[in-house]
Specification:
Layout lengths: L3 H22 L11 H9 L18 H27 L16 H22 L3
Helix pairs in contact: 3-4
Length: 131
């Protein structure tokens, strides 16, 4: 698989599956989950954590404000990741030339590392901001 997002999505299920199986085997699932087969299926088939209403025993809907807040955060993260990735990719991930290759604390090397760390942080934030 060449696409990293697809690769991460494919790796998430086998990672999450043993934990969900242990939760089901030892009875640590929420009461609402065991109320109906559909709740059980929704809870155990999704990597996203659902909140169940204690009165109706069904998944609760997200408030409009929460959806708007998450959407804004996602757009901001996608834009920042796109800008950083465009800059870093165009410069072969080294926008500041490192003339002194022996000095690990040279300002240009530190700036390259800072931008690489910002890119890593922004791509992780983008991947998790929708949840």
């Amino acid at each position: 698989v060449c696409n990293r997002a697809v690769l991460v999505a494919c790796a998430m299920t086998p990672t999450l599956l043993p934990f969900r199986a242990l939760e089901a085997l030892f009875g640590f699932s929420p009461d609402s989950v065991e109320h109906s087969l559909s709740n059980y299926s929704i809870y155990y088939s999704s990597p996203i954590e659902f909140v169940f209403d204690s009165a109706t025993k069904s998944p609760t809907r997200a408030a409009r404000e929460d959806v708007i807040r998450k959407g804004r955060g996602l757009i901001t993260n996608v834009l920042s990741a796109s800008v950083l990735l465009s800059i870093m990719e165009a410069c072969s991930y080294e926008p500041f030339e490192t003339h002194d290759s022996d000095n690990p604390l040279s300002p240009s090397r530190l700036m390259n590392n800072l931008l690489a760390a910002l890119l890593t942080c922004s791509t992780i934030s983008t991947g998790t901001s929708a949840f």
